Amino acid sequence: MTALSDHRTAIRPTMADVAAEAHVSVKTVSRVVNHEPGVRPDTAERVRAVIERLGFRRHDGARMMRQGRTFTIALVVEDLANPFYSQIGAAVEREARIRQHQLITASAEGSPTRERAVIEALINRRVDGIVVVPADESASSDAAVEASQTPIVYMDRPVRGTPRDTVLSDNHGGIRSAVEHLVAHGHRSIALFGDDPAFWTARQRREAFVATQQSLGLPGPPRVSMGPHSPASVRETLTLWTETSDPTTAVITGNNRITIALLLALRDLRRPLSLVGYDDFELADLVDPPVTVVHQDPAAMGQKAAQQLFARLLGDESPAQTVVMPTRLVVRGSGLRRSTTTR
Amino acid sequence: MTALSDHRTAIRPTMADVAAEAHVSVKTVSRVVNHEPGVRPDTAERVRAVIERLGFRRHDGARMMRQGRTFTIALVVEDLANPFYSQIGAAVEREARIRQHQLITASAEGSPTRERAVIEALINRRVDGIVVVPADESASSDAAVEASQTPIVYMDRPVRGTPRDTVLSDNHGGIRSAVEHLVAHGHRSIALFGDDPAFWTARQRREAFVATQQSLGLPGPPRVSMGPHSPASVRETLTLWTETSDPTTAVITGNNRITIALLLALRDLRRPLSLVGYDDFELADLVDPPVTVVHQDPAAMGQKAAQQLFARLLGDESPAQTVVMPTRLVVRGSGLRRSTTTR
DNA sequence: TTGAAAGCGGTACCAC
DNA sequence: GTGGTACCGCTTTCAA
């Protein structure tokens, strides 16, 4: 053991240190560490003993660099604290872990600029692939992604430009199931409180609502109010629509947040309105009456996206594909026809 | 441009490629890329032009290796989809991003074995530091952490062995505030539905409950039921405790999940019990009556842990410190004294 | 079965 | 100002 190796060992032993101690070459240490065949058992044993004694741990950074792969994928979303995204994150991480990969998660906070910066940083780190819930449809980082050849999968919303693998939710089907459910329970005058039309998903759901309403032959022009909403604005609009000769008897919301705003508004109004919310939420069962919802499955979407990404990493060269994940109507009661006396 | 560089450029240009094209040394390219001073403006401009033309992007893996730092920290929790952890995750990621670091998140799924494997993999990757919500108190990966010298911060629960930086929540204060609130509203017979005593936090809260009950001079032996719970088991216990000569009039829960089980049980029982839940939840406002809770601030805890970690990365060598984060009682109404006629 | 040497793509150090 | 070169710690290649 030289003075040098002695010193280095104290900090972080390398394969060279192990090799010196075990009187073998670095290559042999490498073989042992990576369980490569072709090492005599006793040699391997000796090397393993030294590894153990010195507390050697392979420096994966060096390995990645030489191999040109990082065994890392990344997930870029708007806000990791949002349940929709955190469920996606958990699913993607799981798929990564199963395949011995690690996951870098990053928030873009809804800003295309930040999203681009984040994605470029990830490319510089040579992550093997990226899953992105894009901030908008502009594909802000398209050029960088293109040049880097880094496989990317988009989720929840499509982006313009070069077609890429994309996992969407069936917004049309989700809204249709909501409308049909309400109609089946006798509703004819249904309103939609959608999200800000700046969001692609919000526009999709609005279109689906209008189309379904027409295809079912419901009377009158569709009543649609797009966000952003507050409980107050919702209350106002609701009052308007329920005090006509053709009062709205049921409401569909465009997402989670709006469902909550609506529940608050309904509580104040004390009006017997039926409701189907978009997005499931934890306490839907505990509200009175329990809230019927269109359930998107973020975990399934995340899993699907990760699987698509790993297929690319394994060499799948087929054309970019878009997958639309089904939604599920969870009936809990709030969609039933309700009389004033119910409350 | 040689044939070699021609080929390489098509894949991924390196500093050597840029240097050759710009007729400067690699070192000069490095200087330009890193905005180091001491490069003539026109040289820098020429280099930048080539960088642009070739689409060069620095390989951060190589840089990290040379510098011995990865500009990466990691977060290990039980389940990324759990709101408590995902809020921590969002906060930690934010602190990392502000400091130009990236965050690797990993789930240990509550298994100490998996946790150890995950942490060792992170150490092998030479992450600069790790934040861990440990699966148990065993500090399963302590030896590896010790040897690797990787800074680590524990959250929510302490671990045995070598003292390390730890961020805890004030379980005692949280429970005390809940009990005091109920007592202030006239309750004298209060019960606790705690979580599985296998969890350190659950035991802490139980102890706090018993201690507070005694210090306030409440009558009788403390009524405590530790988990795991189901709505059915909760209902059974509640029935027992409310049908004595000294009926329980208020309940404190040990966490989020139990609060929900309790709400379901209460709905079935239709008994006028007051309630203070541990952990805030999104729709606490919408339940009838709105649920008063002890709010832990996972975002603040995550932020604090990340800040402590970065202090270490910046060279803070002071002794390991434990920080206890305060909780906040969010009064919403369910803690008030309720008569049978209220429902 | 084993090892020597050349890289992977940058940065650090020191000449010029 | 600029460049040469060793080197981070491992894998790859090829020879012995």
TrEMBL record, chains A, B:
SUPFAM superfamilies: lambda repressor-like DNA-binding domains, Periplasmic binding protein-like I
UniProt xrefs under PROSITE patterns: HTH_LACI_1, HTH_LACI_2
Keyword Transcription regulation: yes
Domain HTH lacI-type residues, every copy: 13-67
GO terms, molecular function: DNA binding
UniProtKB keywords: DNA-binding, Transcription, Transcription regulation
Keyword DNA-binding attributed: yes
InterPro entries documented for this protein: HTH_LacI (IPR000843), LacI/GalR-like_sensor (IPR046335), Lambda_DNA-bd_dom_sf (IPR010982), Peripla_BP_I (IPR028082)
Protein name, per record: LacI family DNA-binding transcriptional regulator
Naturally occurring in which organism (per UniProt): Terrabacter terrigena
